[in-house]
Write a structure and sequence with these properties.
It is built from five helices and six strands, in the order H-E-E-E-E-H-H-H-E-E-H. It is α+β, with helices and mostly antiparallel strands. Strands 4-3-2-1-6-5 form a six-stranded antiparallel sheet. Helix 1 packs antiparallel against helix 5 and helix 2 runs antiparallel to helix 4. The longest helix has 34 residues. The two termini are 37 Å apart.
């Protein structure tokens, strides 16, 4: 009997763990003010700030990052386990836990980032989401003086990997129905017919 494997789920688990590993060293989104005068490295697993070349983190954000690291790790590992046993009775529970986590991380990260940029725009500071722009601080902040700086915002490789992992996880969830139906058809064709006993 051929062993069933959800290959899409296997790819999703691998990409999820790769995205996590790279995210520990590279941010999902980076904002740079001037020539690295101020730098913000943002991601669900590693957010830190740079000021005049000195990096620092905020304890609360670090704690949230740690929770996401553990969740992302569990999601990738469980997705790999599920992919190897997609026809087991408990497989759907494994899939249900694992496929949602990258989706939640990506969506929540984009939403929080958009909210921050909207709040900054409300106060007259329009930061670029992806690209470069010259940002001028409101005169009320600088006592009438004009202060401008080149600001760059860029999505980095780990973000795109996380998006790919999310898409694969969702596809693996949809493909699970195909794996299950293929198993049912295989069982129905291999099960010998039951014949009624005849008396002599």
């Amino acid at each position: 009997m051929t062993r069933k494997i959800n290959w899409i789920g296997l790819a999703a688990g691998i990409i999820t763990l790769i995205a996590l590993a790279i995210s520990l060293y590279m941010p999902w989104w980076q904002l740079t003010v001037g020539q690295s005068l101020i730098k913000i490295n943002a991601s669900p697993v590693n957010t830190n700030f740079g000021l005049f070349g000195t990096q620092f983190t905020i304890p609360l954000i670090w704690a949230l990052n740690l929770v996401t690291i553990l969740t992302f790790s569990a999601s990738g590992i469980i997705m790999l386990i599920y992919s190897l046993v997609p026809t087991k009775p408990y497989a759907k529970h494994l899939l249900g836990f694992s496929y949602k986590k990258p989706l939640y991380s990506v969506v929540s990260f984009v939403v929080v980032l958009a909210i921050i940029l909207l709040i900054a725009g409300h106060f007259g500071v329009y930061l670029p989401l992806n690209g470069s722009a010259t940002v001028t601080l409101p005169g009320s902040w600088t006592m009438g003086a004009t202060v401008s700086a080149l600001v760059s915002g860029t999505f980095q490789l780990p973000f795109y990997l996380a998006v790919v992992a999310t898409a694969l996880c969702i596809t693996a969830r949809l493909y699970h129905s195909h794996v299950s139906s293929a198993l049912s058809e295989s069982e129905s064709t291999t099960t010998p017919p039951v014949t009624a006993a005849t008396s002599v």
